[in-house]
Amino acid sequence: MADAVTTTSGPLVRLKGLKRYFDVSPPLLARVIERKPRAIVQAVDGIDIEIARGETFSLVGESGCGKSTVARLVVGLYGPTEGSVEFDGMDMQERRSAAEMSVIRRRMQMIFQDPFASLNPRWRVFDIIAEPIRAFGLANSTDEIRDRVNELLAQVRLTAADGSKYPHEFSGGQRQRISIARALASKPEFLVCDEPTSALDVSVQAQILNLMMDLQREFGLTYLFISHNLAVVYHISTRVGVMYLGRLVEVADTQSLFRRPRHPYTRMLLDTIPDLEMTGRQRAPVAGEVPSPINPPSGCAFHPRCPHANERCKVERPNLSSLDGGSVACHAVEEGRLPMEERTYAAG
Amino acid sequence: MSPSTAAAPLLQVRNLRVEFPTRRGTLVAVDDVSFDVAPGEVLGVVGESGAGKSLTGAAIIGLLEPPGRIAGGQVILEGQRIDDLPYEQMRKIRGARIGAIFQDPLTSLNPLYSVGRQLVETIQTHLPLSAFDARARAVGLLKEVGIPGAETRVDHYPHQFSGGMRQRVVIALALCANPRLIIADEPTTALDVSIQAQIIALLKGLCREHGTAVVLVTHDMGVIAETADRVAVMYAGRLAEIGPVRDVVKNARHPYTRGLMGSIPSIGGHAERLTQIDGAMPRLTAIPSGCAFNPRCPQAGVRCSIERPDLMRAGPSRAACWLYDSAGVGAPAAREAARG
Ligand SMILES: Nc1ncnc2c1ncn2[C@@H]1O[C@H](COP(=O)(O)OP(=O)(O)OP(=O)(O)O)[C@@H](O)[C@H]1O
Ligand SMILES: Nc1ncnc2c1ncn2[C@@H]1O[C@H](COP(=O)(O)OP(=O)(O)O)[C@@H](O)[C@H]1O
Ligand code: SF4
Ligand code: SF4
Ligand SMILES: [Mg+2]
Ligand SMILES: [Mg+2]
User: Fold this and answer.
1) Of B196, B280, B339, Cβ closest to residue A272
2) How many C-beta atoms lie closer than 10 Å to residue A307's C-beta?
């Protein structure tokens, strides 16, 4: 749909050795007087991902593992501490003219979890959606803008009349439709969606997920989708990356990840999915909680919770290495001491 | 009221109605809700946000925030009517005979006191134990809810615990006096998936051991499917369906429940699109006449927009739907497609 600027044949998005640390130390004076140490959160600690055109790449993981930070790095809301984000072959860190940056920014948009916080409560829906059209100069006359906004409202299954209302007059699901319409206004190719349905009821979630899949098909969109809900991720993704404490522990295509999970943490996450089929499968609740990202455990960060951890795991950090088309970061897998596991699911 | 017998339900909710007087008129948030909970049973209450789940729970434990009030019906615990008790008497019942667990563990914990002090206070309010014995019971409870190092942790303050650990403490607090009933409102919603599984397993295990009944309010069908014996589905302040968990999840009778179940993404399925119910649950100010679901219902007939269905027998469940009435829904309703 969009008038592409440069279109290389490589992946649309490439993250290389991406890191983002946050300094959460007490103020300097307190550190000196109370002898408190510096504290650095390693929110994202070296991530490599390639996202192909037209695919939905999902990130899953428990709260605080760095998913939202990756999302914000990708759209440029945060700068990386190290590493790079490439969009369509262009390194986002390179210096560019404002005009060039604006062209790139138009091509990627973000949708947030809380559709209320991300919509200006004092603007009418029409103006919220028209704003990017005006900002990027995508339409000139008032008539053109109006037609485009109405087209966008229709695309997210709202009506032209809804344009004259304010965000508070809408339900959560409708507000998320407004966010999507605004994100689509600049005709992007790439959407970063951070928990877009987590604040919604399941029935509304179904409407939004269906809408997102329809729009993807219609406009050839590429998604980076973030969620902690594995069933949603299963439903919408082409490939999935599992994060733990700022790092990827496993990347695989959706079917492989859910049917033949390799990493112990992926298996643990899959074990936590409530069993709607009531097949009598006994869920073994996992021990422990996510450790603090300020002082992550040595070696493999998952070792304190891992049933397969050994001495090597406590000292040596496993790297992500390719395996059967996906990749896994685990010593036990690499050493071949972790038996394969086939999982079956009732066809829903 | 007749004295309770062994066969009698632990909790009876009869025609419960909760209202909010507002400047623009009275909002009916819970309307004509009736159900029983047997001793030791887990009743799941599900529905979309705003359906009236939390208010139903709050009405049972007498914690409705004014101006919200019980405007009709009765709540009967072990044969005793409790909805009309004076505040002080109700306060004694809370804790002693009904425990409460809320979504945010911090609402149940005082940040200024150690968890041990809070446990001991609650225990001594309801049980005739010495300080020493109460503390021993507090440590025992913390152990039971899976807090490692309970002997030292008992002296820690709420902020020193993680979210999952805090919810364990709240469960311990709710269990202090061995209540017969626990009202748990979204007890795992604020927690991570892995912690969610731990807390659900814990709650389920404890209630089985202690024979405690639970009213589990949640919007998460997965949690209900794994935990509840029976499920009540709420829609726009009323019960749409109530029945054994397996029937409600696998063989829903009410068209709303069917849509709700279909909209849950499942792993292993190949459905390209999820089943979706078009439109949204009505606001309290605009509840449709007749069956509140009729503007969104694919099976609605002319009768549905005129007459309001009460719960009626539908297989092993009961559903508030004219499809299960011998006279049916009448001629198909003619109307424009609901907006999605
Ligand atoms: N601006 C910031 N300043 C300091 N620390 C931060 C900041 N943003 C994130 N963090 C920390 O970085 C880690 C990763 O946070 P992030 O928000 O990316 O997690 P997440 O995976 O999105 O979690 P959730 O599932 O809860 O949304 C957390 O420990 C968080 O507290
Ligand atoms: N203080 C209040 N004033 C007016 N309406 C309220 C108040 N509290 C709750 N309600 C309304 O009552 C309905 C049911 O609320 P609630 O029981 O909290 O829903 P649920 O727990 O199912 O999400 C909602 O429509 C809500 O907006
Ligand atoms: S590297 Fe060791 S501790 Fe980490 S997941 Fe693999 S087996 Fe477990
Ligand atoms: S009563 Fe009518 S409108 Fe209501 S659920 Fe049944 S068929 Fe649908
Ligand atoms: Mg996040
Ligand atoms: Mg609620």
Assistant:
1) B196
2) 12
Is B177 in contact with B123 (CB distance < 8 Å)?
Answer: yes
Q: Which amino acid is at A172?
A: G
Contact A204 B340 (CB under 8 A): no
E-state strands within B286-335? 312-314, 317-319
Residues B34-56 pLDDT 10s:
999 999 999 999 998 889 999 99
For residue A348, give how far its alpha carbon lies from the nearest alpha carbon of chain B (Å): 4
Closest to B205 measured CA to CA, from B123, B136, B138, B145: B145
What sign does the CA torsion over A116, A118, A123, A126 have? negative
Instruction: Dihedral sign for Cα B21, B23, B29, B32, please.
Output: positive
Q: Name the minimum distance, in Å, from the CA of B54 to any CA of chain A.
A: 15
DSSP A184-246: HTT--SEEEEESTTTTS-HHHHHHHHHHHHHHHHHHT-EEEEE-S-HHHHHHH-SEEEEEETT
* Cβ atoms of A43 and A22 closer than 8 Å: yes
Phi–psi pair at A319, nearest 5 degrees: -100, 155
Rounded to an integer, the average pLDDT of A296-321 is 95
Per the CB < 8 A criterion, the answer to whether A260 and A340 are in contact is yes
Q: Are A171 and B280 in contact (CB under 8 A)?
A: yes
Q: How confident is the model at residue B5 (pLDDT cuts 50, 70, 90)?
A: very low
Contacts of A293 in chain B (CB under 8 A): none
Residue type, A194: D
* Exposure class string for A290-305: b at 16+ Cβ within 10 A, else e: bbebeebbebbbbbeb
To the nearest 10 degrees (0 to 180), the angle between helices B115-126 and B131-144 is 120
Please indicate whether residue B235, judged by its CB atom, sits closer than 6 Å to ligand 2.
no
The ligand placed nearest to the CA atom of residue B320 is: 4
> Please, which residues bridge with residue B77 across strands?
B11, B80
Asked casually if ipTM beats, i.e. exceeds, 0.85, the reply is no
CA atoms of A156 and A143, how far apart (whole Å): 20
Question: Searching chain B, which residue's CA lies closest to the CA of residue A60?
Answer: B193
Q: Retrieve residue B214's tokens.
A: 């639970």
Query: Is the per-residue pLDDT at B292 higher than 70?
Result: yes
SS3 B136: helix
Q: CA-CA distances (angstroms) from residue B157 to B106, B111, B119, B141, B319?
A: 11, 7, 12, 16, 47
pLDDT value at B336 more than 80? no
Q: How far apart are CA B50 and CA A274, in angstroms?
A: 23
Question: In the block, which residue shows the tokens 């499809």?
Answer: B323
User: How many other CB atoms are found less than 10 A from the CB of residue A246?
Assistant: 24
Closest by Cβ to B269, choosing from A204, A278, A347: A347
Beta-sheet pairing, A326-328 with B312-314: unpaired
Helices B193-210 and A264-271, axial angle in degrees (round to 10): 50
User: Which residue bears the tokens 């990756």?
Assistant: A70
CB-based contact A152:A131 (threshold 8 Å): no
A171 close contact with B: CB closer than 8 A:
yes
- Is the sign of the CA dihedral A119, A158, A232, B105 positive or negative? positive
| Domain residue extents for chain B | 291-340
CB-count burial class (<10 Å; 0-12, 13-18, 19+) for A158: buried
